[in-house]
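Running this now, will post back.
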Amino acid sequence: MAAAEQRLTELGSLRSLSALNEKLSLLRLLGRLDEAWDIANEALRQARFSGDREQGLAARIRRAQVQQYQGKLVPALTDLTICAEEAHGHEWTALEATALHNRGRVLFDQREYREALADFKNAVVLWEKSGASMDQLESSLVAIGVAEAFLGK
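Update: finished.
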């Protein structure tokens, strides 16, 4: 945790999108969710301002992750569903997989294990389609095993 705090200090007042995304991850890791929410919104505004829709969508997914950690499952689920649909429409396979994996986590938190399992499985298919590494696939594969255990499969 000290290393995360030190890195936050190093990032200081940097406002590039990559710095904001790193701050967001560190704040989430440290459990400083209100600060993470503020940074997530700032990153989303910056991504939208850049005009890069793909970056904007990635920022929305990261913001929904913060909502999940805050226990705001319904808005997180709504945002992730919209993100998955938008990514699908643009054929942004990796972003669609990310949105589905994260939506699966929210559904799991809501004890909707069957729906979560479907999202995790779809995420794996999309990760494979996008040529993801085994490291990228691993979290979805583990999530499948956990969801199946909760369903008694």
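The radius of gyration is 16 Å. More later if anyone needs it.
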